[in-house]
Amino acid sequence: MTETVTPSAVVIPQLIVGLGNPEPKYDQTRHNIGFAAVDALARSWQISLAENRKFQGEFGEGIAPGGLKIRLLKPLTYMNRSGQAIQAVTSWYKVPAESVLVIYDDLDLPLGKTRLRLSGSAGGHNGMKSAIAHLNTQNFPRLRIGIGKPKNAANGDNSETVSYVLGKFTAAENQLMSLVLQFVVECVELSLKQGVEKAMNRCNSRTVEVPQ
Question: pLDDT tens digits for 60-86?
Fold first, then answer.
């Protein structure tokens, strides 16, 4: 895939969005790992998130490590309309699309893997389809968090995939995902300090594992 972001421009996120679905029944599900990532960032940086009707999401702003002002968003529009909330924030604060970092789950990445990119397609993810449609470009950074695939996915069993994505992590997976979320915080902090492109080297090469 050709990269359309000029290498000379250092991309520093100003808005970090985690994708997920509202409602308690979706809490802690695989599809909501983007929400969990934003919660981890908010805790780490001591930014409080509160529901903001204008932005159709939970929103907070504060100072990230390195002294940069940062905004965090969890759209409460449901996944397939995530772009509405993102666009509400970017329009209000005049944030350019390339300064929006979107964090979301990826079935095609195994558990323990993360993938940071400067741009790209939605890859079948409804939240990303909506983000691309509302930002009117694919040129914004994204951090995908691997959630692995269900065992029957190879048989083309779509219902199995849906229940897997909307299911909760097992106890063992939760142990791993808490380490993954710590790593995600590291990756995002590196993106803020050195730019997304430099952070890609670190975030894309490591597999997070539970220490034996």
Answer: 999 998 898 999 999 999 999 999 999
pLDDT tens for 130-153 read 999 999 999 999 999 999 998 766
Helices (DSSP H) in the chain: which residue ranges?
33-45, 82-93, 126-135, 158-165, 171-194, 196-205
Calpha distance 124→105 (Å, rounded): 11
Q: For the domain that residue 77 is a member of, what is the CATH number?
A: 3.40.50.1470
CA–CA dist 35, 48 (Å, integer): 14
Residue 107 maps to a domain: yes
The residue segments making up the domain with residue 97 are: 15-205
pTM: 0.93
Tell me the catalytic residues.
Answer: 31
Which pair of tokens denotes residue 50? Answer: 């509160």
